[in-house]
Write a structure and sequence with these properties.
There is one protein chain. By secondary structure, this protein is of the alpha+beta class. The chain folds into two domains: about 130 residues, Alpha-Beta Plaits (2-Layer Sandwich); about 35 residues. About 55% of the residues lie in helices and about 15% in strands. The chain contains six helices and five strands, in the order αβαβαβαββαα. Strands 2-3-1-4-5 form a five-stranded antiparallel beta sheet. Helix 2 runs antiparallel to helix 4. The protein is elongated and about 95 Å long.
Amino acid sequence: MNTNLENKKAVVEEIKAKLSKAKSVVFVSFLGTSVTQDTGLRANIRNTKGEYKVYKNTLLQKALEEMGLEGTEQYLHGTTSVAINYDDEVSISKVISDAKKDNDKLSIKFGILDGKVIDDKYVEMLATIPTRETLLSKLAFLLKAPMQKLAVGLKAVADKKAE
């Protein structure tokens, strides 16, 4: 068998392995992005324990088809990089969305969330969701408020009976 074909099959298997382990994936067009902007984006993605890689569109398409993900052909043209996060569903969307604000040449093509293809608008919507820590602190505050009101009420009743 041709070594080039073997290399391509290995890359397709690598893509499939990474995408199947990922919690969320964002496919990005980076045409016209400067080296400085790209380096900053890569560093921000690494900070979220994510991964950023450039693959050939044909290999990406082959891997996506083998995974049963349909409807991606329309997005896989031009330059395509893949931002992958294995820990949570929203952090990679936030990083890409923030980078897009600073770099008008960067654009979101589509994403994958929970094994389903999502469009660029859905990826942008994910970026607006607060972080897990923020949501947990809001939940703690909401749970604390009724207990605090109950404690104040009980203290007022106790003080009134003491009079």
